[in-house]
Specification:
- By secondary structure, this protein is of the alpha/beta class.
- It has one domain: Ribonuclease Z/Hydroxyacylglutathione hydrolase-like (Metallo-beta-lactamase, Chain A, 4-Layer Sandwich).
- A hairpin with a 3-residue loop joins strand 8 and strand 9.
- Helix 2 packs across helix 3.
């Protein structure tokens, strides 16, 4: 567990379905989890600081949300056009792009790679949380894309993602919370600018 800024916690855990480490985040003062896996220290880590909400950056990132819901009663939030895939897993509160969510988070549409791809602007932590549209692989310099085989039309998808993130540069953020890869604790605007400019 790493506190990358005051009250903003990050950890990685192995995702059994993709056999890779993924990143999760906890906004402690707001008691909001983002794309959560159970921390390596176990759910006991949350004793005395139990989460109230879980916000997903897309429908694929529910991960351990249902276990955490069972343990703490967390409300799970997913963008409305992705909720169909979560049917039968547990209760979900849908939101729309542009909505303000718990913790003062505002949901922004990314689309391009999938219709429910969402960027979460978190003004209270000067952060932008992203799903699959931007990744940061170990040993690779800078931000990049998922492999081409995960995209229906790789070149068109990449153009769409660059355009989407270019439009998000109007937001105030200095931290980038990646679902796949280590977060950027500072300098995120410059890194996203370089990504968007290709």
């Amino acid at each position: 567990m790493d506190e990358i800024a005051q009250g903003l916690w990050h950890w990685t855990a192995r995702h059994p379905h993709i056999d890779a480490d993924v990143s999760s985040y906890y906004l402690l003062p707001e008691r909001v989890l983002l794309d959560p896996m159970i921390p390596p220290a176990g759910a006991e880590w949350f004793a005395g600081r139990e989460p109230l909400h879980i916000v997903l950056t897309n429908r694929h990132h529910d991960r351990d949300s249902w276990r955490l819901h069972a343990l703490f009663g967390c409300e799970v939030h997913c963008v409305a056009n992705g909720c169909h895939e979560l049917s039968g897993r547990g209760p979900v509160t849908p939101f729309e792009f542009g909505d303000e969510l718990p913790g003062g988070i505002v949901a922004h549409e990314v689309d391009a790679i999938c219709p429910d791809e969402t960027a979460l602007h978190i003004p209270g932590h000067q952060a932008l949380a992203v799903a699959d549209g931007i990744v940061r692989w170990p040993g690779v310099d800078g931000l990049t894309f998922v492999p081409d085989w995960l995209m229906d039309d790789p070149e068109d998808t990449k153009r769409g993602l660059r355009a989407a993130y270019r439009s998000l540069l109007e937001l105030d953020f200095d931290r980038l919370l990646l679902a796949h890869g280590e977060p950027l604790a500072a300098g995120a605007r410059q890194a996203v600018t370089a990504f968007a400019d290709g």
